[in-house]
């Protein structure tokens, strides 16, 4: 049994960590901080947890020592205090963007600010278990991947590694509203946000950097992301347009995925000939830690279309963090993460 | 051709007035004010009007004289300046709540503030054309009804007048997000607002006062409103639970509605035996000035269930205002208001 | 460990039973039948269960003996075969309407057909644990309540029993599309069904009979239901308009609820002064077995508004059935049913 | 004043033609056919038209001669009867796919059936006014474009013609449920269709053929379409991933669009620096005949992302047909088509 605390527990990611860990048999939630809601019940902000916990938020200044600290702050807020946090907890899992990139210059390029703790960058393991399980077992510090990066990396990784596709991909991402976090604005105002197909970032998405870092295995990968927000609260789907290398057949794609993901508890290859859920579908992944992956080879246009889907707040954020924790502590990797998802929903 | 201006044109009601009047052959939009967007194009805020108008917002201080002024300010903001506005325009249509109630004390009771221009109250005609057409023809000042009051009054009026039902009604209102206006807040934040069935006002809705005022024809009407917000941007449906007087049959209900609404261009009685749109449905009223009304008499429980539906921003707000204007100036009453609505949508 | 089978496993209720029981430590799913999908994988129809089970549907004729049989057939289909089914399983939980009403005449009145097994009616216990826990412990046959009846009964029961309200209630129900089951029709066709506020049953809802049966404690309860379908896949909210007896105060309501539901694991009284989830909200109950209940006393109109919310497929159907099973077998009542729900969703 | 009839008026396209033409001052709707609903009121199927028309459906066998016949039948149904229809009407506008492709072999390749009237193919003008205005003026027979083809062609045409981009494009289309027509199926069943991000056609979309036909101006255009269905009833957005030719700048893109579309009443270039509707958005195009087009040049990845949006049932179908009709008869091109769209919606 370990004691964990959550720094920044009033956001959506923080809420999901609490939800998952309340049912984790080897974890006790010690403290959850919130500047704004200090002293208030956690269930005021996360109403699904009513009667399931009597946790109250504490002010971040009252954070005590713990075994593991989850940091769920806005991007840019953790790098300045990371050294102090490391005195409070021997192990830290940061869900923000600050420690994902190994290279401080790349960070500055994409986030338009200096990195305040670049010496710590090498100490962080990138938190996608499927790629870094061995490192995670020994890790003290983990930087969880961005949600869009997570699903893109998991979908592309076997095909890059096994040289199935050319190193030039276009990621057309369909995004949900929870990805923008909990702060209201006109762009998230229901009458303006409901029903949209909003091209909010046709190019220049920051997760490009993470994806290139993780997937530039043999050659530099060239990634172009276009992100479109649709009327969905939770969920993320990427349609990845790739060019297969000469002579590649469907069976080669299958082989690559099986080679890398056979035995992975949270990866499912979804490619059905029948039924109406023939490809990955975020709708039925809500609340789950699965990453579903599908593909279609189109010989007529010499294109391999990949499709990846996750719940952005679980496999894309909090579930990924708990999966990393399970690996770090040698707990069964699936503990707390086996909710199967709902149908219909 | 008359010159009209709109005081407060950046909100949803203001936007709808502009949309409707851009196609009105007897009206020229002279000025549209916005404190926040002064100097900016109207289509920045109302993107549906792109390329259809080159109007820009002006600061309210620059408001010139005009024939008719539409006032679309937040509740409570027009009463303090109404006397000054009357120097600018001989005719005024106020879309807010300030001049709807004839009695200043009732206003204070429901809005929890003193009325700042109670001497003007008797000069305002309540803007539901179907009830006050004769008065509107001579009116200089009009106070448009609240959206929830509009549909409730129109649905109930013939049955009260013809003594079909007892003077005690329960209005169960299903509301949309545009009714809350254009200001973002946590309660309108998409992840929190999408998919809700939110009992945001189980009792105590302010429109009670308007409904009682308009419908206490013979006896005091007792109105209990419960308002539930659902996942809908535009539209409003009321399910009104009433008790029929002894011996009332379906044909009496039909007779009452026909007596009052025969010839009304914007009222439709919807009660079909076939098809899937057997009762009023706000979905297909979006953009229209119709008020659809239906009913079902349940002898087993001695209850008459009434169903009324409108587009809250058109018949409930801007369309109602334009309909009043048409009557005031002797224009054809339906001018600019005959959009038929879309199906499917 | 018991062996259970599901007769009629390809519908939404059947799918939810499978989902819940796959994680139930004391239950093994032996067989799942489907006439239409016999021989096919269960996950073809219930895609959320991919990789989580290798169950395949069998034809109902191949049903073997088992400890407990869940029957999830369309209304009217189980009564004709119940005697045969009782040879297959000593315990049966029927999720349909056939055995809910104790009185065959009442059944005929509401369902417009003769009851084919009226002698079995007295053997069935009505499956709401909170009202019939003692009987369920000894029960062999259980008839689960209708979803709309479940939430209405749970919301009203303490107030009827403690004589807080008059025996005359109006239930305004907001319904979701999954309640109509899995058969496509024009009325469930997405372009026609999305965005509706459809008064599909202003009066005459069949669940009236169950509610009256369960709640006519001292006097005959008079129940009038109006059901409106809204744009929601899963969830159910009732706004119940009641009249408090003379002198009743809010504290009396609290007292009644506490008296009956203190210690109930799946009932929560939700009545908050702050936050945006101040009353029950089906949105955050998706996948959970909770019934959330709230109320507001409106002295101005002498009305007590009750609000109840559930997930129609869990507490309203499959979760209720599993909860009954847990009680019947002496398992911990909450086993398999503690999913906390998601926020945001 | 011309007399028009509609063959196949009970579908969504037929309904939209009726809606638009009811307000067209130079057109009289003579007959509307429906095999299934013959004898029934048009408003039974198109409930938005209640009280606005007393048209009833007639059986197609009762079709009389008329000036112009709109044919709105399922794909494949018009080619077999086209010769007969040409005896009924001198001018015909076909909204189906049968006469869009000039080449019978290409038709057979994509639609997997023989063309039954290939000799008529050369007589049909492809119905996109912006590309074929001169031909339409003289046309007797018009084949309206597919909705997905319409928006793709309009978005790409100027850039192909002015040699701004390479002849290899990827179209990532976000589709609505009304595109699938009015026939219910499990895939359109609300619980299954709501909330989806369904990769229903990752490759192989039939509209590829039309787009290649219209845009292979200098060289063969290579088009790869991936179509994803999202939770939207009406609307269509394409994100088109293209590669700019060497040295192309944003101003070249602007120049090409202006050169082709200056003066076009239904094309708007939408590329704003401020506001939340910075790019085309189908949400606010519902009911309109606009095609909104935007773009972003991403130098980092040498990519030009194009964004096009329409209402699939108006500019993509019925509005396009009426626009063609207006051109054919020399009516003002915008007649009946100037509904500005709603905001918010």
Tell me the total number of β-strands of chain A: 14
Strand order of the largest sheet of chain A: 3-2-1-4-5-7-6
Query: What is the subunit arrangement here?
Result: homotetramer
**How does the overall form of chain A come out from the CA principal axes?**
globular
Please work out how many helical segments of chain A DSSP would assign. Answer: 10
Q: Find the structural class of chain A using helix and strand composition.
A: alpha/beta
**H and E string of chain A:** EHEHEEHEHEHEHEHEHEEHEEEH
Mean pLDDT of chain A: 97
Query: Largest interface, and how many residues on either side?
Result: A-D, 46 and 46 residues
Radius of gyration of chain A: 20 Å
Strand content of chain A: 15-25%
> Share of helix among residues of chain A?
25-40%
Amino- and carboxy-terminal Cα gap of chain A: 35 Å
Low-confidence stretches of chain A: none
The domain count of chain A comes to 2
Largest sheet of chain A: 7 strands, parallel
CATH architecture descriptor text of the largest domain in chain A: 2-Layer Sandwich
* Assigned CATH class of the largest domain in chain A: Alpha Beta
Looking at the structure, the CATH topology of the largest domain in chain A is Dihydrodipicolinate Reductase, domain 2
What's the CATH superfamily of the largest domain in chain A, by name?
Dihydrodipicolinate Reductase, domain 2
């Amino acid at each position: 049994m370990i004691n964990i605390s959550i720094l920044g527990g009033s956001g959506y990611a923080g809420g999901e960590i609490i939800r998952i860990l309340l049912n984790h048999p080897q974890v006790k939630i010690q403290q959850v901080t919130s500047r704004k809601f200090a002293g208030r019940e956690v269930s005021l902000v996360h109403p699904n947890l009513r009667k399931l916990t009597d946790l109250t938020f504490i002010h971040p200044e009252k954070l005590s020592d713990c075994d593991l600290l989850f940091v769920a702050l806005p991007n840019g807020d953790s790098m300045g205090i990371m050294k102090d946090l490391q005195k409070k907890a021997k192990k830290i899992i940061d869900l923000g963007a600050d420690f994902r990139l190994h290279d401080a210059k790349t960070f500055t390029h994409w986030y338009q600010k200096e990195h305040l703790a670049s010496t710590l960058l090498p100490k962080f393991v990138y938190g996608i278990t499927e790629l870094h399980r061995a490192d995670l077992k020994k890790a003290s510090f983990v930087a969880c991947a961005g949600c869009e990066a997570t699903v893109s990396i998991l979908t592309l990784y076997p095909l890059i590694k096994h040289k199935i596709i050319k190193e030039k991909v276009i990621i057309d991402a369909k995004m949900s509203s929870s990805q923008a976090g909990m702060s209201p604005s006109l762009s998230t105002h229901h009458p303006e946000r409901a029903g949209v197909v909003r091209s909010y970032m046709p190019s220049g998405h920051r997760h490009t950097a993470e994806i290139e870092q993780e997937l530039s295995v043999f050659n530099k990968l060239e990634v172009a992301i276009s992100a479109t927000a649709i009327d969905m609260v939770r969920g993320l789907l990427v349609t990845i347009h790739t060019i297969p290398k000469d002579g590649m057949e469907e069976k080669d794609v299958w082989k690559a995925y099986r080679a890398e993901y056979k035995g992975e508890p949270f990866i499912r290859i979804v490619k059905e000939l029948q039924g109406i859920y023939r490809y990955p579908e975020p709708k039925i992944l809500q609340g789950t830690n699965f990453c579903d992956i599908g593909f279609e080879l189109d010989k007529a246009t010499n294109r391999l279309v990949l499709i990846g889907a996750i719940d952005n707040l679980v496999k894309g954020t909090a579930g990924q963090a708990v999966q990393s924790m399970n690996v770090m502590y040698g707990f069964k990797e699936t503990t707390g993460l086996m909710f199967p998802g709902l149908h219909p929903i």
